[in-house]
Amino acid sequence: MEKIRLIRELKLHDFELYKLREGFYGKVICYMLFIDYKRPSTLKDFPILKNIEDEKTFGRSNYIKVLFISDKELNEEVKDEVISIAGGFFENKDDCDWNCFFQTTNHANFIKLLESKSDLLSFFEEILKELGFCTNLSKIPTEKFYYLSQD
Predict the structure, then answer these.
(1) Which end of the chain has fewer beta carbons closer than 10 Å to its terminal beta carbon, N or C?
(2) Is there a domain that residue 14 lies in?
(3) Residue 127: inside a domain, yes or no?
(4) Are the C-beta atoms of residues 18 and 7 closer than 8 Å to each other?
(5) Between vectors from CA 130 to CA 62 and to CA 60, what angle results, nearest 5°?
């Protein structure tokens, strides 16, 4: 597998968005969105563990969701690699649970994300809205993207 390059597209207090690309100029593999819920994790965050873990003792002080968006189903090797990349951001956070979800969008939508910052922000604003976060990503002034953080 070719090296994967991370390009940060957005950094806010509760969210970070990265584009993952094959090599320096290769094709875009997916987008990786970190959502910091800033609340204790629960079994609802890990549906696969229901009836396995004890609801009373399960959880840590914080929960972060990682969402990968691509235009096609990623193969297992790529999934393992991008999960490993996400893990590098969280492995030193001792009292933090995190998990990953994969979602696909049609190719035409995905191309629009690559071509327009406005379309990119609107798309992820909708995803965050579906997850219960009210944000105005599409209202972030262009000048804010000159800096490391868009807060």
Answers:
(1) N
(2) yes
(3) no
(4) yes
(5) 10
Please check whether residue 35 lies inside any domain of the structure: yes
The pTM for the full model equals 0.92
For residue 102, which phi and psi values (nearest 5 degrees)?
-115, 135
Domain residues for the domain of 99 are 4-42+53-106
Measure the N-to-C terminal CA separation of the chain; round to a whole number of Å.
35
Lookup result for tokens 């189903």? 73
- Residue at 3: amino acid letter: K
CB 53 within 8 A of CB 43: yes
pLDDT in tens, 96-128: 999 999 999 999 999 999 999 999 999 999 999
pLDDT digits (tens, 9 = 90+) for 23-34: 998 999 999 999
- Decide if 7 contacts 23 (C-beta within 8 A): no
Token couple for 40: 């204790």
Domain count within the chain: 1
Give domain status of residue 77, yes or no: yes
